[in-house]
Fold:
Amino acid sequence: MSKKQLGVIFGSRSCEREVSIISAIQLMRHADPEKYDVIPVYIDEHGGWYTGEKLKDIRTFQPFQPGQSGIVKVFPDLSQGSGALLAVQKGKGLLAREELKAVARIDVFVIVMHGMNGEDGTLQGVFELANIPYTSAGVGASALGMDKILMKQFFRGGGLPVLPSVWFSRSAFEKDPDAVLESTEKELGFPVYTKPANLGSSIGVSRAENREELRSALELAFEYDRRVLVEKGLTRPIELNCSVMGYDGDVTASPLEMPVSGDEFLTYREKYLASGGSKGMASLHRVLPAPVEDELRDQIQEMSKKIFTMMDCKGVVRIDYMFDRDSGNFFITEINTIPGSLAFYLWENAGIPYRRLIDQMVSLAEKAHQDKNQASYAYTSNILEGAVLGAKGAKGSKGSKA
Structure:
């Protein structure tokens, strides 16, 4: 049986590009070489697409030099079902013209993007147009999961528990910062957390205990996004995370983890630099499984599966929660539609090694692709019949008489 051509796509124009590189190299090392030809596809900070075996080595990105031997600049063929990565290459001979060649053909794309321009539905939309199977949630769930403001409104509208929050645009803050500060203090009090709407990995996130700290926190957050969420803080919270895997209602929840932080919240450094940065989220200090009561564990796992189904996700996601020790309530923090390290450590704790997790992600991507192609994209009507195009414009059938 021929091996599947597995395109692992990562990087992109995102503040979380380096995290994506680590997650992707982890995945490429674990993919079964008996089943897959792994083809790395790297999108650099300028938006250029590249492929080549050297992209499997993390040293290639220290720093990335696109002109080096063994790395080819490519672009995707968006023709229906092509899956080709195309490159413009010089022909042989003194007067030879440039030639367009397919350097690879991808059967399934594994999306290992974190942040904007990859995790947010934009890349998913490209693969939908090209009609190529891909892992990760679809366009809608990816876009919703990336934008914390829209995400909170969705959860709240679905009757799910979220912390009180407000949000502001950069223009509103620049126009009248005191009004923003006063409104936040009136609505939420202190402490609060400020978060750029479309960032992850705790980049730009701050805790504020008073108005002056809030001003500084907002100024920082607005450096990364034009919209910022401000969320009520808890006094003695415990963070709990749960991964969900599946598609179309057939979903499974992982064991819960309890990340261990030395700060008031998990910082970028704690998440990704705890062991020199080589292991990504897998290096984070955590208690796994989380030492919580069975009832709380069951509630969070069931809610995680409900969220996955409500958002019509597929593949592997991770949903983060805050448990309030004072009230005994828990709240949804966010959904990560492409979690750091693909949350493989949570599934290993459930008895599913990373190699098998990759197999299941590929299988789910192919199943969703098959379902999509069962839909009819043709609808016959007479709307063009009798349409006249001329110098005076177009006249359709709507105003014509039989």
About this structure: The two ends are 59 Å apart (CA to CA).
